[in-house]
Design brief:
88% of the residues lie in helices and 0% in strands. By secondary structure, the protein is mainly alpha-helical. The chain has 2 domains: 35 residues; 39 residues.
Length: 77
């Protein structure tokens, strides 16, 4: 009987405080994920895509220069 009394208080505390907060935070995060990217995140994604395209162009240019200056460079790598 004493063991049951020891468990009742933590269970009640969990059910009244922790469980509701847990559920609220869980469903709030689910809602944010389902909404997709925010405006800021979308802008960052576009900037990163633009930078990646520029970097790819630079790599192509560097490879073309190396092909002209040192045609054997690909075999050395």
């Amino acid at each position: 009987m004493m063991d049951l009394e020891i468990l009742v208080a933590p269970i009640i505390l969990f059910m009244l405080v922790v469980a509701p907060l847990w559920l609220i935070l869980h469903y709030r995060s689910k809602k944010q994920v389902s909404q997709g990217l925010s405006e800021h995140e979308h802008r960052q994604l576009l900037e990163l895509a633009s930078k990646a395209e520029k970097m790819a162009e630079r790599v192509e240019t560097l490879e073309a220069l190396l092909d002209q200056e040192a045609p054997e460079w690909r075999r050395k790598v």
